[in-house]
Structures are given as C-alpha cells and as structure tokens.
Known about the structure:
The chain is α+β, with helices and mostly antiparallel strands. It has four helices and seven strands; from the N terminus they run ββββαβααββα. The strands form two sheets. The chain has a five-stranded antiparallel sheet with strand order 2-1-7-6-5, with no helix packed on it. The protein has a two-stranded antiparallel sheet with strand order 3-4.
Amino acid sequence: MTVEYVCEKCDQDNLADLSKITKSTCTNCSNEIDIALSHGSQKGGKIDRCVLCDRIRFYVQKDFNPRLGILIFVIGVLFSYHTYFISLAVATIIDFFLYQVLKSVTICYHCRAIYRGFEEDPTHRGFDHNLALSLVEQDEKRAAQDVEQESAGV
Length: 154
C-alpha cells in the first residue's frame, strides 16, 4: 500500500509506503509530511480519506501512462496506410491487453496523490471534469472568504 505524491515545497515526486510509516520525508528538500490512514482504510483496505489533504473525493484509472497509450496509437495510425490498417488492429489489441492486465489506482481530486495496492472502491468512478471544476471553484471561494475574513479582522 503506497501513496505517490508531489511535495508542496519543492514540487518533486515522492513515494511513501503507508503500511510502515506515519511521516514521509521529501527526498529532495527533507520536508516532513504527517501521514495517517483512516480507520476505514486500515480495516477495509479501501481509500476513503486522503492521507495528505484529508479530502474524500477520488477517481480511479488504470496504472498506465496515457502518453504512452497515445504514442502506441499514433504509431499505429502512421503505419496504417502502409500496412493496410493492420497496425491499427495491432494497436487496438495492445491497448485491450494492457487494459485487462494493468491494475487500477485511486487518485485524489484535490492533491493528485496516487494510491496503489488498495482495494478498488466501487463508489469511485473515472475522472469527472465537471466534478473537478466544481471542486476547484469551491476551493477558490473558500480561499477568497479566508482572505476577506483576514482583512476584516485586521
């Protein structure tokens, strides 16, 4: 059970094993981050709360680099004329095989932390652009309200 995240201080990728630690230290800037799995995640094996930002909105996707998938199809398209479209069929077969073989990861909408090794929660769906935009708008409204409250209190 691991979480891959980006350090908020130096923007470097980090990987933490959630079964062994309660704090994660950035490999680049030595920034320490408290990590604690919720009781539900410990018992059920499903992510229900982000260990980094404490949010509850997640989506799932296959653990595969989308750019590599696009590259496979671009190569299939480029050679399709010369191979009588057989290369497109091969690209489709490769894509189908990878989809069947690769596991899913759970990703936090807010901080983009990637969780591996957890049981997939059926309530988490694929990425929803409308939900992501509404969450960003909510965060912006909260930040604006916090700024207003600080300026009114000063």
